[in-house]
Amino acid sequence: MARTVGANGAATAEHILDVAERLAQTRGFNGFSYAHIAAEIGITKASLHYHFPSKADLGRALVARYAKNFQAATAGILASGEDALVKLKQYVLVYRQVLGADRMCLCGMFAAEYATLPEQVQQELRRFFDENERWLTGVLEEGLRQGALQFEGHARDVAGLLTGALEGSMLLARSYGDGTRFNASVEQLLKTLVPRPRARA
Amino acid sequence: MARTVGANGAATAEHILDVAERLAQTRGFNGFSYAHIAAEIGITKASLHYHFPSKADLGRALVARYAKNFQAATAGILASGEDALVKLKQYVLVYRQVLGADRMCLCGMFAAEYATLPEQVQQELRRFFDENERWLTGVLEEGLRQGALQFEGHARDVAGLLTGALEGSMLLARSYGDGTRFNASVEQLLKTLVPRPRARA
DNA sequence: GTCTATAGGTGGATAGAC
DNA sequence: GTCTATCCACCTATAGAC
After folding, report:
1. Which single residue of A122, B4, B108, B133 has CA 20 to 30 Å from A114?
2. To probe the interface with A, which of B146, B154, B157, B178 has the most A CB atoms within 10 Å?
3. Which residue is nearest nucleotide D14, judged by alpha carbon to C1' distance?
4. B77 vs B84: CA distance, rounded Å
5. What is the DSSP string of A41-103?
């Protein structure tokens, strides 16, 4: 609002975020610069500073937009009305698509660099994970009630495990350039949530 | 060998690695510099370059030493003769101690920055994860044979899930400055590997 | 909104004296 | 092995013209 001036005032800012997002997801917050973005867009560094005065501003905007889009996706899944296991698989698919573009989850990436991030970015980051685990906890509890899922212990702890496992599996799969690693880990994890007696192999 | 000259020739190099390791584990490869290390040790940047000519050399040495120490730990666990579940818990404890020092696993950290790493460091990194999953796979297969563990599917896939989940859980726990998050996720995961019928909650 | 120009700092790295 | 001195590339950020 404050800065959206002309007809396409926001368009450039979005373009900047698009490029910066990809760089951040592949190289990390400390692995890209205004110069990288400028070169790719065909604009000067000074112009970037007009849209995002400091890199902290840019980082905060990146996480905020990423979280907003993620939340839109999870809201859509919730509205699908499918059973909890299907919802979970759709949720995993969101991560899988990010990995398919040879990117790491923006927030998992930033979590690694957490200690070096501007405070505003750190706060925005935690909001993302809080929101995700809140959503997952809801789906897990629903699944338990419905009988669509099975697990011991608190739904919140399972949600934490899911988040950690998804982020970690992405991290490793990307290092190996092998998305099937991610698939295998996720399938292994989802097996444990499927409601049937599994005393033996 | 090549560079160990005087009586304490290797001592300084080790000291450098100690400081660099901590910086790398908390700030990432792109989050620390020769200047940081120099200031902390009380030596000049130029002297650091004597021991590690390029940052790529330093990075490779960091991962190599970290992997060596990790392997010594896993070898010790293997030699303990405990059953597979206990071995697994001891393995988790190695990660937990790293987190307890407010550090991320060096290799998980570098995995995030993978795309920006010198090639030699990338190679060394994959060797670490390969070795870890090889070890885990062995313990998992042993546990299945002994009846000390239970899981469906291939041991290698479970090993991949464990590695990913451990790294990811560390990543998130450190962002929250809350080691109990890690504990909760790991306990939740280990539950699924304990050999008793778990059809219901 | 975008540009040129530049400031002020830090990055990794080298030469050469001691 | 460690130092001083220095190089040059790159970083984030700002001033001011258009």
Report:
1. B133
2. B157
3. A46
4. 10
5. HT--HHHHHHHSSSHHHHHHHHHHHHHHHHHHHHHHHHHT---HHHHHHHHHHHHHHHHHTT-
Shortest CA gap A49–chain B (Å): 22
Closest by CA position to A179, among listed A95, A73, A109: A95
B63, B161, B170, B183, best to mutate vs chain A, most A CBs in 10 Å: B161
Does B108 sit within 8 Å of A144, measured CB to CB?
no
Neighbour tally for A50: CB within 10 Å:
12
Asked if B197's CB is within 8 angstroms of A161's CB, the reply is no
The token duo for A162 is 């899911």
Rounded Cα distance, B125 and B111, in Å: 8
pTM: 0.95
Residue A14: CA atoms inside 13 Å, Cβ hemisphere, count? 5
Please give the structure tokens belonging to residue A150: 């099975």
Express each pLDDT in A50-96 by its tens digit. Answer: 999 999 999 999 999 999 999 999 999 999 999 999 999 999 999 99
Q: What is the mean pLDDT of chain A?
A: 94
Query: How many CB atoms are located within 10 Å of the residue A178 CB?
Result: 13
Q: Is the CB of A33 under 7 A from strand C?
A: no
Q: Which residue has the tokens 């490779």?
A: B60
Chain CA centroid to CA B144, Å:
25
**DSSP per-residue codes, chain B:** -TT--STTHHHHHHHHHHHHHHHHHHH-GGG--HHHHHHHHT--HHHHHHHSSSHHHHHHHHHHHHHHHHHHHHHHHHHT---HHHHHHHHHHHHHHHHHTT---HHHHHHHTGGGS-HHHHHHHHHHHHHHHHHHHHHHHHHHHHTS---SS-HHHHHHHHHHHHHHHHHHHHHHT-HHHHHHHHHHHHHTTS-S--S--
Which residues of chain A make contact with B164, given a CB cutoff of 8 A?
A: 165, 168-169, 171-173, 185
Residue in A37, A141, A162, A19 with CA at minimum distance from that of residue A94: A162
Predicted local distance difference test score (pLDDT) of residue B107: 98
Question: Which helix (H) or strand (E) is A167 found in, with range?
Answer: helix A155-175
User: For residue A117, what is the DSSP state?
Assistant: S
